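Hi,

I'm pasting everything inline rather than attaching a file, because the server keeps stripping attachments. The sequence lines come first, and each chain or strand is labelled.
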Amino acid sequence: MSLWSRIVNVFRGERLSREIDEELQSHIEEAIAQGRDPAEARRALGAALRLREESRDFRLIPWLDSLRADAIFGGRQLKKNKVASAAAILSLALGIGACTGAFRLIDALLLRPLPVSEPEQLYALARQANSPEGKTMTFDSWPYPAFQLMRAAVKDRAELIALSYSARTDLTYGSDQDIEKACRQFVSGWMFASFGLRPALGRLLTESDDVKPGGHPYAVLSYDYWTRRFGKDPKVLGRTFRMEDRLYEIIGVGPERFTGTEPGTVTDIFIPTMMHPGVTRSDWSWMRTLARVKPGVPLEPLRAKLDAISLAFETERAKGFMSWPKQELDNWLKQKVLLEPAAAGVSDLQNDYRRALVALGVLVALVLLIACANVANLMTAQAAARSREMAMRVSIGAGRWRLVQLVLVESAWLAMFATAVGGVFAWWAAPLVVHMINPPDNPAHLVLPADWRVLGFGLALTVGVTLLFGLAPALRASSIRPVSALKGGDDPHSRRRLMHVLISVQSAFCFLVLFVAGLFIATFERLSLQPTGFSAERLLTLETVSERPQPPEYWDQVAEHLRTVPGVEMVAIADRTLLGGSSWNNFISVQGAPTNGVLAYMLSGSPGWLETLRIPLLDGRDFRPSDTYPGMAIVNAAFAKQYFGGGNPTGKFFEMAPGGGPRLRFEVVGLAGDVRYREMREPILPQAYYPMHMADGKGGLTARDYGVFMVRTKSANPLAMASILRREVARARSGFRVSNIRTQTEINESHTVRERLLARLALFFGMVALLLAGVGLYGVLDYSVLQRRREIGIRMALGAPAGDVARRVTVDVLSMVLAGGLAGLALGMAAVRYIESLLYQVKATDPAMLAFPALAILAAAILAALPPVIRAVQTDPLTVLRSE
Amino acid sequence: MPKPDSLQGSLDLLVLKILSRQPRLHGYAIMTAIQARSGEVLRVEEGSLYPALHRMEEAGWIRAEWITKDNGRRSRLYELTPEGKKQLATEESRWAAVTAAVNRVLRTV
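And the predicted assembly:
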């Protein structure tokens, strides 16, 4: 018989036993038929049970059979304690589900290698430099000419690939009325070959598609986009679309699993880098560099070579930075090229969320550990109740390993159920988190496959968890000594000691989780309470483009038209939104003095811009329609402080030299209140505002093809007017088109998305941790009261007051909670270093930050201790003593 | 009462040999056949017969089949497999080698 039949026999054990019995029975009948005495025949055959066991072991796999028996028994045990089992399964499921969900996110964003050949050879180039503000910063953008020099210099050791940042762009497959958005990325033509990718349709870009600036209007679609937009229509080949005033021809579709090089973004359209308008410019940093390092090439010399080339390029370029102070220049040139592994690709989402996700991962792992401790305590308590059963098993010859197996199998049941429930939870929760970090206009597309990686993690987690909470009770159960157990137990305290240790571990982790949650919540609260200095209420931003650059008068006419639309309160034009992500800065000098090395940030706004945003005018006047750039400026209070020593700058002058050109002179005509320009987390930047009308130096005004209409509406829900305004802009003048509409509130909130996510999830898991720890504490106290009821009864019979009893019952456990809390505090202090960059205006040593977890745990402990203590105090000595 | 020698280790050989002569026997018949053929000298210990049969079945030397007898009772019949035939040859030559060796010892000492 084969192994298979032996496995099958395990699961038809009943039948196997019956057959063996039947055969033995027929033997005896045969013997009787031969005239032998029935009793003698039976005696000669021996004990039927022993024979059956012996035969069974040949005909099936004994260990599998015992496992099966234990699984059935364990299942019955779980069914017997329905409530306890359900509680254990649910709490474990929450922990396992949260861990698996966190793993899915972390894996998808940070770990999963790109679906390219030999992803481990990929490295990302980045630069470390000192910012003008004097902080160390890392950035990964380069101008294309620098990339070309670097590529040529290391050609024998590594293949460098240029990749623009994926961005959503307007394009049309038909007329201008059918503008749609797609995510496009400029890539080196040789990227596909270097990645070892094959087209799903047509052909991919090659090196010869990336030679002449502006000379290769070809596009490759991603498989995902081809599916979404064209329903896998093979006829897309040869179709054209227009994007940024250029016509592109679709030449192919990429392979199915390749969604670009930026986890968190699914690139729709790949275009050769040579088509980028900045490809020949040394002052436009718009692309990242990936390096495919050839096998066996040492990294450090490669890095040093790239470093030297990049620095030489920057030194050459810096000769044009005439307005830069010498010190700033030296500072800028103190930069260093870094080479970091990038098997998983490289994206902004990774940089923004790496630390946050890892922090969340640790939090959920702690919650899982708390749940494990709970279940371990539950199992220990149950093992105590079953000590007689265990002793009986040992007495009739069960081996130690068999008992370990028995308890572990029961644990495995719990873990398996929990994993199943947790898997559903993770399946639902991970996309929800991705959804939470999505800015509505630029949704993050994090590909979240549930494949063998996730499955493997789930299985490993199940096994790990089973051992974690099952092994200690199992070993304890197996080391039982039948004599003492059957007599009524030897050391009743040893079991409680294990439980107490687990209680303090739980308290420590719970404190840590709550402490970190408190820090995240306070960070979010403080960040969202930060005044921006302007009012985002009912404010819509209409990013508008025109087909060709249009004279500023036409832009003013569109604004004028919008003012007549019912429901519109006020309209202004600006060249960018505050906090919108784009910035313009330069060094300033006052009255010919050299600049002080602090950058000023600039924005152009029409008359009424201040009023529309409700930025207070502290002194002077607003712009007039006749004001032009260069000439007049309004500055904010921070600017006045930075460059005018805090005095009133109205009527004074300053200069700046944009792009290394001639110095321009500005008169300060107004002083405005401070507003947030770029970030919520930094001090208010010195800012200067200029008129929208820019002199072109030839007596006219510069035409522009981009502007933002700032519209304050009358309705409480400004987005309700979005479609009307979109239509009105197009109607006001032909050639004008709204490319994106956002509320200012949404723009502001995008700066706290990560903090809100962390605060929400940390609060949720903090509450779960507290609940689990509370339940665990209750269970242990309840068990200990039950176990000590004899002692309590005697004490009460001898006249111990209720307070004394309550103290005796709780003092051990509560001191464990206290010890755990202190350990958690120490852990928290140590851990806070790793999450410092996620925090804002919050100190770990802040008493309020420490009081929150301490009070929460105290309250939970009191609540959990109350029922067992009441039961202890109400113990009736007579009943207890009589029952013994 | 001393037990008759069950000839440790030779049970497999005997069972295989009997089955090679007479296919399709049930356990009791195998036992009586061994006794009869050995001239009532060898007696199979009844308790060890069935585990041995099941072990050999598991090893693939013999196979078993249930039949229903006239009285409605079922009985399990064994027969040799091709593999069992090979095993029998091996066991026989091993037995011959062992007895020859034992005989040599008896003669020389």
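The beta strands of chain B are 25-26, 62-68, 74-80.

If the labels don't parse on your end, tell me and I'll reformat.
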